[in-house]
Amino acid sequence: MNPVLRQFWVITLCALGLALLVRGLNHHLAPWQLHLSVGGLLIALAALRLHSRAALACAFAIGLGLDSLTPVTFGENALLLLAATALVLGVRHRIPRDELPVGIAVAIIANLLLLLARTLLHSPGWPDPSSGWLRIFADLVASQLFIAVIAPWFFALQRHSLAWLGANHSGPVPGRY
User: Fold this and answer.
1) 146: closest CA among 111, 117, 172, 96?
2) The pTM is what?
3) CA pseudo-torsion sign 124, 137, 143, 82
4) Could you tell me which of 5, 75, 85 has the C-alpha nearest to residue 45?
5) pLDDT digits (tens, 9 = 90+) for 5-58
6) Which of 112, 107, 83 is nearest to 95 (CA)?
7) 105 domain residue, yes or no
8) Based on the structure, what is the number of domains in the chain?
9) Which tens digit of pLDDT belongs to each residue from 127-156?
10) Can you give the chain as a three-state secondary structure string?
11) Domain range for 121
12) Which end of the chain is more exposed for a tag (fewer CB within 10 A), N or C?
């Protein structure tokens, strides 16, 4: 199997697995009216390490997987994750992308942008738009802390899975895409 295709499957399946775990955690956090959002973490390693086409394909597939799990317009998460990945791809040549703190910072910033974009898309439909901002702020703080804690483990899972399957090449692979 092509290494780029292996990278795509490893990153996508790890991300969807984490999304399912976070969905279960959100179910248990519901009595406290908290919701964790980890979209930035799901795309961070792909956007920092993979070839741009592979990273965008991963973001789109992960977004479609999230769309199937959430009650939003189908394709919304896919487009938001594509946009966030494109932003990271635009700046990744300026940052040390092999450093763990940089990966965590990218995940946190991308998650912040994704949560703000999603909030701005849905806030006009709220009965009282000003009432939801405190909850969004609480969700944002909880999500960012969760990402800061879980990101090293998740990046290690993805890296070890890539190495185990022999797809750990971090740069563009010559050949077709």
Assistant:
1) 111
2) 0.87
3) positive
4) 85
5) 889 999 999 999 999 999 999 999 999 989 999 999 999 999 999 999 999 999
6) 107
7) yes
8) 1
9) 666 667 788 899 999 999 999 999 999 999
10) CCHHHHHHHHHHHHHHHHHHHHHHHHHHHHHHCCCCCCHHHHHHHHHHHCCHHHHHHHHHHHHHHHHHHCCCCCCHHHHHHHHHHHHHHHHHHHCCCCCHHHHHHHHHHHHHHHHHHHHHHHHHHCCCHHHHHHHHHHHHHHHHHHHHHHHHHHHHHHHHHHHHCCCCCCCCCCCCC
11) 3-164
12) N
Instruction: Supply 100's token pair.
Output: 């763990």
Q: How far is CA 139 from CA 39, 74, 112, 162, 172, in A?
A: 13, 23, 11, 31, 36
> Distance (Å, rounded) from C-alpha 67 to C-alpha 73?
7
The dihedral region occupied by 36, where left means phi > 0, alpha psi between -120 and 50, and beta the remainder, is beta
The tokens describing 109, both together, are 């910033």
pLDDT at 126 over 70: no
Is 84 a domain residue?
yes
The CATH number covering residue 110 comes to 1.10.1760
Sequence-ordered list of residues with C-beta below 8 angstroms from that of 172, at least 6 positions apart, any chain: 51
The pLDDT assigned to 127 comes to 66
Average pLDDT, the chain: 88
